[in-house]
């Protein structure tokens, strides 16, 4: 339980930096160098916790600490081998009922998207022709069954909710999101997700 505070501190630092960058008027479509540095620092911190304690499950880090660990893993995009290691640990914890299956599902889709592969659960979205839609899905006919098994809502509901939230929250317009996608693709090549 002693590292729960460390994990919550990481979460709070990210929220504070994101709020600061949003207020600064910086372009929304870029992976800000300060955010990337923070993500890399947090990934190293989570790696130390994992090396000492294993995956931070709710039993040892409370639900909020476990959620914070998952968020750090989701944002460790410049550390492919570490993200893959987190996925293995998280899947194991989810299979034992020690972590939410949805965390493993979301991380798996994020990794597949970074690798340029089709996703399993349809959780990663992008703008296509001005419409927020899922990135390509492997075996789309079975996606809702896989989502249900992972504790996720049906895909159509998730898409509708994401589109509504994007409208309500003033998500970046599609042209800025496209820049973000291009930045993420360049990062994926730079750090070894793709060739």
Which helices and strands appear, and what pairs or packs with what?
Layout: H1 4-24, H2 33-53, H3 58-74, H4 80-95, H5 101-115, E1 125-128, E2 131-134, H6 143-149, H7 155-169, H8 174-191
Quick structural overview:
The protein has 195 residues and is mainly α. The protein has helices spanning 4-24, 33-53, 58-74, 80-95, 101-115, 143-149, 155-169, 174-191, and strands at 125-128, 131-134.
Describe the structure.
The protein is mainly alpha-helical. Helices cover 67% and strands 4% of the residues. The protein is built from eight helices and two strands; from the N terminus they run H-H-H-H-H-E-E-H-H-H. The protein has a two-stranded antiparallel ribbon with strand order 1-2. The N and C termini lie far apart (40 Å).
């Amino acid at each position: 339980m002693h590292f729960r505070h460390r994990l919550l501190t990481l979460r709070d630092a990210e929220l504070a930096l994101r709020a600061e960058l949003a207020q600064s008027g910086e372009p929304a479509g870029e992976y800000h160098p300060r955010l990337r540095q923070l993500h890399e620092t947090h990934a190293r911190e989570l790696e130390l916790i994992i090396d000492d304690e294993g995956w931070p499950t709710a039993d040892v880090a409370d639900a909020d600490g476990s959620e914070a660990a998952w968020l750090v893993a989701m944002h460790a995009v410049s550390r492919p081998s570490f993200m893959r290691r987190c996925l293995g640990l998280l899947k194991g914890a989810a299979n034992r009922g020690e972590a939410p299956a949805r965390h493993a599902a979301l991380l798996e889709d994020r990794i597949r998207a970074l690798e340029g592969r089709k996703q399993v659960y349809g959780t990663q979205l992008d703008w296509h022709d001005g419409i927020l839609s899922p990135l390509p899905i492997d075996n789309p006919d079975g996606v809702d069954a896989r989502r249900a098994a992972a504790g996720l809502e049906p895909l159509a509901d998730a898409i509708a909710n994401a589109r509504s939230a994007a409208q309500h929250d003033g998500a970046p317009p599609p042209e800025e999101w496209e820049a973000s996608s291009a930045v993420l693709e360049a990062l994926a090549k730079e750090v070894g997700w793709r060739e």
